[in-house]
Design brief:
Strand content: 5-15%
Distance between the termini: 27 Å
Number of helices: 2
Structural class: mainly alpha
Length: about 100
C-alpha cells in the first residue's frame, strides 16, 4: 500500500469515528425531541424539514409464521445443496471500532 492510500484509510477512520460520535448525540436528541414535538408537527429547517413519523409493526397469524419459517428452512437447504444461485455484490468497506473503546 502506498502512503496516499494509507493516509486515505486513516482519514476514513477519523470520519467514521466522528460520524459515530455525532450519531450517538443525534440519537439522544431525537429521543427528547420525539417527546417534546406534537405528532402533526412539520418544521422547516435551514436545509430540510423535520417531522414526526412512526412505523407500523405487523404481527402475523401462527399459520403464516409457520409458512415463513418453512420457506427459510427450504431456502437454507437450497443454498447448501447448491440449487440457489449466489450473486456476489459490489465490494464495500466495513469499519468496526475496537471492543475496548
Amino acid at each position: 500500500m502506498n502512503s496516499d492510500t494509507t493516509a486515505r484509510i486513516f482519514r476514513y477512520e477519523e470520519i467514521k469515528l466522528k460520524i459515530k460520535e455525532l450519531e450517538q448525540e443525534a440519537a439522544i436528541l431525537a429521543e427528547v425531541i420525539v417527546e417534546e414535538v406534537p405528532a402533526d408537527t412539520e418544521l422547516a429547517l435551514k436545509q430540510g424539514t423535520l417531522s414526526l413519523a412512526s412505523r407500523s409493526k405487523w404481527t402475523y397469524s401462527p399459520a403464516l409464521t409457520s409458512l415463513e419459517k418453512d420457506v427459510k428452512v427450504r431456502q437454507k437447504d437450497e443454498q447448501q445443496r447448491g440449487v440457489a444461485v449466489e450473486e456476489k455484490g459490489k465490494p464495500y468497506l466495513i469499519y468496526r471500532t475496537n471492543k475496548d473503546e
